[in-house]
Amino acid sequence: MNQVFVTPTDGIAVVQIDNPPVNALSRDVREQLPVVVAQLADDKAVDAIVIVGAGRTFVAGADIKELEEAAWSGGEPPDLHDLLRLVEECPKPIVMAMHGTALGGGLELAMAGHYRVAAAGARMGQPEVNLGIIPGAEGTQRLTRLVGVEKAIELCVSGKPIGADEAKQAGLIDQVIDGDPTLGAVSFAREAVRRGAPHPRTRDRADKLGTAESNAPIFARGLEMARTTRRHQTAPLAAIEAIEAATTLPFDEGCRRERAISAACVRSDQGRAMVHAFLAERNAAKVPDLPKDARPAELKEVAIIGAGTMGVGIAMACANAGLRVTLSDVGPEAVDRGLATIRRSYESSVTRGRLSTEAAGDRLGRIQPRAGFDGCEPADLVIEAVFENLALKQQVFAEIDRRARPDCVLATNTSTLDIDRIAAATGRPASVVGLHFFSPANVMRLIEIIRGDRTGTGVLATALAFAKRLGKVGVVVRNGPGFAGNRMMFPYMYEAQFLAEEGATPEQVDRVLTDWGMAMGIFAVDDMGGLDVAWRIRQEKRGRTPFPPEVERKRGTTPFPANEREPLVADKLVEMGRLGQKTGKGWFRYGDDRRPIPDPEVLNLIESAASSAGIRRRQIGDEEILERTIYALINEGARVLEEGVASRAADIDVIYLTGYGFPAFRGGPMFYADTIGLAAIHDRIAAFHRELGPRWKPAPLLARLAREGSTFRQFDAEPKRTAAPASRS
Ligand code: T1G
Q: Strand order of the sheet with strand 175-177?
C-alpha cells in the first residue's frame, strides 16, 4: 500500500507520509521514502524537499509492533540508517515540517533533515525510555549535536516531549510556524534555496559536544537523575551511555555504538515488558466480544451522586476533560465540603504552576452543586459514588432510575459490590455499568469497567469512550466481588500479613516490595486506603452464611477456604482505632510528611497474636517474602482469567500497572510470571500449598499452562470461548 505521496509546488516537492494512525515508520514507509527522496534528488524540477506527516501528526516513531516482533524473535530492530544517510546527504535542502507529536524515530528522521520547522502546538521528544529502550536511529548522536549534552540527557531520560518554543530555544528546530506548517515549511525551503548550499548537516555539528572536563559533572547529574526518577530502569542509563559516545566518538562510530546499545535494550526483559505494557494498554480498549458496531453515546453532562473523596476526584477528572458536571450529596454541607476540596486542589495546582488561573477557573466553573438527585434529569451519564453499602446503593439506584433520562448511562463506582444486584434495583439493568475509579480519581489512570450480566454493548462502548475522554485507561472485566484488581489484592495483602505473623516485619515486607519496584509496599497501601475498608469487607462476609467453598471461590467472595484461618492482626488494629494514614496510625505510624514509621506497638501486637495462635516465629528471607506475595497475586490472577472475569492476561497487567503501582519495567504480574516461567512458579506454589495450606492451591489454569510449557502470553493468543453475549442496548 502506498504510504508516501509527493505534491510538487513550484520547485518545492512536498513529501507526505500517510500511515494512520500516527504515521509510524513501518516497513512500507521505510521502503517507499528512500525511493521518493532519491528520485526527487535527481529531479531537475525540484529545488528543495519538504517532508510532512498526513493527518493529526508528524511521525510518532518507529513501529512499536515491529519492535515487539524483534524483541521476541531475537531479530534486528528496524534499521533507519540508510534512509537517514540518504536524507542528510541529499544535495537539495530538506525541510522537516512537524505538527502533532514528532517522537522517537520521527524526531530522529527530522534531525537528519537540513532544516526543521514546527507548528506552534507541536510536541517533540525521545520517549523510548517509556518502552524500556533508547533512541536507535542515531537520535542520541544528532540530538546531542543540536541541543547539547544536558538537554539531550533531559529529553532521553525523562522521555517527556517539549513544545515548539522550547525546541527552538534549545536549537532543535529552526523556526516555529504559527499558521499551516506545510506552507510555512515551503516558504522556509524557498528561502534556503535562495541562500544556496551548503545546507547544514547535523552530523557535522560539534559546537555543543563540550569537553570531557565540562561534560563530567553533566553526566554525573544525568546518572543521578536517571537513578532517582527511573529507579531500577536500565534504558535511561543506556541512553546516557549512548549520549556519552556522541561526545567521545566520531559520528558514524557513535551511531554504531548507539545501535548496539539500542538492540540490546529491545531484546532485554525490561524492553519486552514495557513494549508489552504500551501495547496492552492500547489493546485493552478492544474488548474481544464487543461488536464493532457498538456505538458510544455522546457525553456532555455528567451527574455525580456523592461528594465524598471519590465523588470529588471523579468530578475533577470530568471537568478536566471538558465535561459539564453536577455534584450532589444528601445535604448542601456535604456538597460545599466537596466543592471546597476541589477549589483547594485547583488552587494548589495554580500555585505549583501546573495550571493557569484561567484553566482552574474554567474547570471549577464546570462543576455545579446540586441537592439530592436534581442533577440526574439532564445528565447523559450518572455516576453513583456513595458509601460502600449494598442496600444504600440499591436505594440510590432506584431513585436515579426514576429521575434519569431513558438513554442515560447509570454507573456505580463500587469497588467490591455485586453490580447485578445494584442493577436489579432499576428497571433498566442493561443501562447499568461499573466505573471503578482509583483514589485519587483525578490522578489515577485506571478505570476498571465492570460489565454486569445485563450491561448493554452500547453502554460498554460509552464507558470505554468515557475513560479515553478522561485520558484514563478503561479495562473491561466481568462482575464478581472484588472484580479483578481488588480480588487479586486480597490474597496478596493477606499473604503479607501471614508473613508478618510468621516472623517478618511490615517494614521488611514493604522494603522487599519497593526494592523490587512496587510503587508502595502492601502495608503502606493498606494504611493509605484505610484498614477499615478491608475490615468492612471481612465483616460483610462474616455477617452472612458462607456458601460451599467452591461457590465462594467461584464467586470470589472469600479469599480463604472455610477451614483456613484469617490473618490475626488487622481486625485488632481496627478495633484499636488504628485505621491507617487517616488516623495517623495503622500498620505504621505517620508524621506530617505521611512517611510510614515502624511502630514497636504493632510488632508487639503481632508477636503476641502469633504466640497465642501457637505460631513459632522465624527469620524470613527477602526471597520468600517476594515469592509468597507476588506469586499469590499471580495465582489469583490465573483464577480471574480462567473464570473469565478478565478476558486477557494482558488486561490484568494493565490493571496492575495503571491502578496498583506495579512496576512497568516488569510488565505486570502475568507478564512477570512468564519471564520467570510458569513451570517454576507452579512448582513454588505447589510447595507453598504443601507447606502452608489450601489457600495456596495452584489455579487450574496455571497448572495447565505450566504442564504444557506455555505462557499467559500464549493463553491470550488462544481462541476463546466467549462468555454469554451481552444484551444489545
Ligand atoms: N508504532 C505503532 N503504533 C503506534 C505507535 C507507534 N510508534 N504510536 C501509537 N500507535 C498506535 C497505538 O497503538 C494506537 O493503535 C493508535 O496508534 C493511537 O495511539 C527508532 C525505536 C503518539 C502520543 O513511543 O505516545 O521510535 O489501539 O491511543 O492517545 O529510536 O500513541 O488504535 O490500534 O496512544 O492520541 C517511539 C508512542 C517509538 C510514541 C498518540 N514513539 N505513541 O497518543 O493515541 S520507538 C513512541 C504515543 C522508536 C526509534 C525508536 C501515543 C501518541 P490502536 P494512542 P493518543
A: 4-9, 12-17, 48-53, 94-98, 115-119, 175-177
The answer to whether the beta carbons of residues 177 and 165 sit under 8 Å apart is no
Ligand 1 atom closest to 126 (CA): 36
Say yes or no: CB of residue 104 within 6 Å of ligand 1: yes
Which of 88, 128, 138, 502 is the catalytic position?
Answer: 128
User: Is 128 in contact with 159 (CB distance < 8 Å)?
Assistant: yes
State which ligand 1 atom lies nearest to the alpha carbon of 65.
2
User: Using one digit for the tens of pLDDT, what is the confidence trace for 60-116?
Assistant: 999 999 999 999 998 888 999 999 999 999 999 999 999 999 999 999 999 999 999
Contacts of range 537-540, beta carbons closer than 8 Å, 24 or more positions apart = 537/416, 538/566, 538/570, 538/571
Assess whether the C-beta atom of 327 lies below 6 angstroms from ligand 1: no
Cβ atoms 442, 274 nearer than 8 A? no
Ligand 1 centre distance from Cα of residue 276 (Å): 13
295-344: per-residue pLDDT in tens? Answer: 999 999 999 999 999 999 999 999 999 999 999 999 999 999 999 999 99
Instruction: Choose one of 64, 101, 128 to mutate for the ligand 1 pocket test, by most ligand atoms within 8 angstroms of C-beta.
Output: 64
Rg (CA), the chain: 28
Mean predicted confidence (pLDDT) in 592-598: 94
Identify the residue whose cell numbers are 456505580.
412
> For residue range 242-258, what is the model confidence (pLDDT) as tens digits?
999 999 999 999 999 99
Residue holding cell 507520509?
Answer: 17
Alpha-carbon span 360 to 358, nearest angstrom: 5
Q: Report whether residue 254 contacts ligand 1, using a CB cutoff of 6 Å.
A: no
Q: Whose CA is nearest to atom 23 of ligand 1?
A: 101
Predicted local confidence at residue 542, as pLDDT: 66
pTM for the whole structure: 0.94
Tell whether ligand 1 has an atom less than 6 A from the beta carbon of residue 63.
Answer: yes
**Length in residues, the chain:** 729
**How many other CB atoms are there within 10 angstroms of residue 289's CB atom?**
14
Active site residue 88: no
Residue 282 Cβ inside 6 Å of ligand 1? The answer reads yes
Rounded CA-CA distance 114/202 in Å is: 7
Q: What mean pLDDT is predicted for residues 658-669?
A: 98
266 lines ligand 1 (CB under 6 A): no
Angle at 565 between CA 560 and CA 567, to 5 degrees: 90
Q: Is the beta carbon of 103 within 6 A of some atom in ligand 1?
A: yes
Number of helices and strands in the chain (H, E): 31, 19
Going by CA atoms, what residue is nearest to atom 40 of ligand 1?
Answer: 22
**Could you give the angle at which helices 139-147 and 149-158 cross, rounded to 10 degrees?**
130
**What's at 378, amino acid-wise?**
P
Asked about 108 being catalytic, the answer comes back as: yes
Where residue 721 falls among pLDDT bands split at 50, 70, 90?
Answer: low
DSSP state of 429: G
pLDDT in tens, 5-56: 999 999 999 999 999 999 999 999 999 999 999 999 999 999 999 999 999 9
Q: Who's near 187: CB < 8 A, 6+ residues apart?
A: none
The answer to whether the CB of 105 is under 6 A from ligand 1 is yes
Q: For a ligand 1 pocket test, name from 282, 290, 469 the mutation site with the most ligand atoms within 8 angstroms of its C-beta.
A: 282
**Residue 108 alpha carbon, nearest atom of ligand 1:** 30
Give me the residue label for grid cell 540508517: 81
